[in-house]
Specification:
By secondary structure, this protein is α/β, with parallel strands linked by helices. It folds into four domains: about 1-55, Single Sheet (N-terminal domain of TfIIb); about 65-140 and about 335-540, 3-Layer(aba) Sandwich (Rossmann fold); about 140-330, Dimethylsulfoxide Reductase, domain 2 (3-Layer(aba) Sandwich); about 585-695, Barwin-like endoglucanases (Beta Barrel), CATH 2.40.40. The chain is built from 23 helices and 28 strands. α3 packs across α20 and α4 (about 135-150) crosses α13. The longest helix is centred in the N-terminal third of the chain and has 19 residues, at about 80-100. The protein starts with a strand and ends in a 17-residue tail after the last strand. The structure holds iron/sulfur cluster (SF4). Iron/sulfur cluster binds near residues 7, 49 and 183. The site of iron/sulfur cluster has 13 residues, from α1.
Length: about 700
Amino acid sequence: MATATHCPYCSLQCGMTLTRQGRSLEVDARAMPANPHSPITEGALCRKGWTAAGLRGHRERITTPMLRDRDVGGWRAASWDEALDLIADRLRALREAHGPDTNAVFGGGGLTTEKAYQLGKFTRVALGSSQIDYNGRWCMSSAATAGNRAFGLDRGLPFPLADIEGTDVLVLVGSNLAETMPPAARHLDRLRERGGRVVVIDPRHTATAERADLAIQPVPGTDLALALGVLHLLDARGAVAEEYVAARTTGWDDVRASVAGWWPERVERVTGVEATVLRELADLLAGADRAMILTARGAEQQRQGTATVLAWINVALALGLPGKEYAGYGCLTGQGNGQGGREHGQKADQLPGYRMIEDPAARAHVAGVWGVDPDSLPGKGRSAYELLDALGTRSEDGDGPRSLLVFGSNIVVSAPRAEHVTERLEALDLLVVCDLVMSETAALADVVLPVTQWAEESGTMTNLEGRVILRERAITPPEGVRSDLDVIAGLATRLGAPSTWSTEPEEIFTELRAASAGGLADYSGITYDRIRAEDGVFWPCPDTGAEAHPGTPRLFGERFAHPDGRARFKTVEYVGPAEEPSADYPVHLTTGRVLGQYQSGAQTRRIKELPDDGPFVELHPLLADRIGAVDGEALIVTTRRGTMRAPARVVRTIRPDTVFVPFHWVGANRLTNDALDPSSRMPEFKVCAARVELAVEVAAPAPAQPVGATR
Ligand code: SF4
């Protein structure tokens, strides 16, 4: 029997059909006729989607709980009851000895919304702890913070992705969607066939830049200065939409004054982008009736990520774009459920429905749904990196958490300053990891719990457009494997937690609908049946009784989400990256993704049909000449935090002052900087200062091989 579902990986959430063929599972692309205008309906998948069933029956799949004996070393299999009893006993003992915040939870942007919701509830109700955050904090939290400030609402795209095709000028800032979500690139092609223009801003001339009419390669970490310069020129050209600005926004006068000094030659000195190119970009935007500006990780994963996004939103507002048809500002989310994961309580400062945890009315509403006293709910916890940085610490100001439960995240590979984070994990009294395979993080755990993967369970996801879609169970999980929802319920019951702890996704979604009702991310009018019938429903979608709310594909047409209905211009200042090149670290390092791998690679590195050549160091021939390297030669990259070894990949498509390393393998994040954005707490993954040398001239560090992988 064929099951209609969606890809397990990125935020596009392409539709696919899974069919059982004996013991194997066949993947097919799926057109979804109920929703013909959806970008996820056209029957396209990238190679990751086509090969997604490769983990089914994989020999590294864990099918029994595993306990590690730290003193003796090695693992032994355990029953589920033994493993859950042990975890619950130790969580209880730690709490009694050190207080509720000694137990912490770390989630993931790939978890279904039901799991994210249950994790938030479990942490606050069963553990009584404020210490929960998730790896989505490292994905688009800067765009989320900026969206909340400027528009009063954070939804990655405020319009369907296919609207791209109808715009006149599309500016992509720090996005390589042709490689990260290839089916989305066809919208760029159609836009250009219509005569529209594409601008790509990226230090690398990527596969996406190949599709651009104008490709701009700024110095990493200077996108903010570029935006200030664009707005300066737009104002000088009289291109500001004065009527729109007066009627629909506040704060323009201050922003106008703040960009007055960002003349093109100053921007050129900071960004390395020639003044003539900046003028070309401003001319394109000034001459367009409709334009779209989309940011992604390149612009957002910076110490000034929030300010950078706000600067580009200022450009969009000045041109009168947000709320206009086929125009506006949006963020291209990365992880499969990066959007839904942060709407319903997995984030340190949020409760379901995108409610803020320190808002008394929000606490009362959610506590009412959960059947607990609002005063029993803890307050705001630490952000993702700050949580990891505090693990196992002891200080006069208070100790950090002594236990961590990890769901859907491979921290050892994906966290910035990864060696330090690994040390913090090793300092814990108890580390529990739920995963499919013995990931690099699971390999450090005291208890590993084997959990279901996407085709073995149902649940909702919210894709990059704010479209709530349904992943359907297609196959029976291997014997011995349980859902994360079973783990949460099993522990909550053992801990004697109040409230109810269903393990059925649809029942949990029904509770989530009630918890979200009246919030910014209102899902109360969405049901599994509606999602199936309509191939997805856009939030906000309140429950309006017999006359069903249609969902909200496009936002901000009439008003923004601030109480006065107006968007906010926000004045921002360029400070620059936390590290500039120096004599010891003379080049910029930036990190990113490759076509055939996804996130930390825990899944995709184990799929034999996907290329797994390991990490590489991409550098320009001029830099290669300077250090005497040839293509394929082993290099050592060093930053103030760590070092890694990988072969050179010499290309003309990167700036000569910059090197690039993909982060799907252990290595890249040993190097990255843990400097945090002051508002979003996003680490500066995208830029730091580095030194590149021939490996033969340096005492070799450990090769950048995955710890737990066998390939
Ligand atoms: Fe899956 Fe993303 Fe590829 Fe679509 S683009 S098939 S959602 S990885």
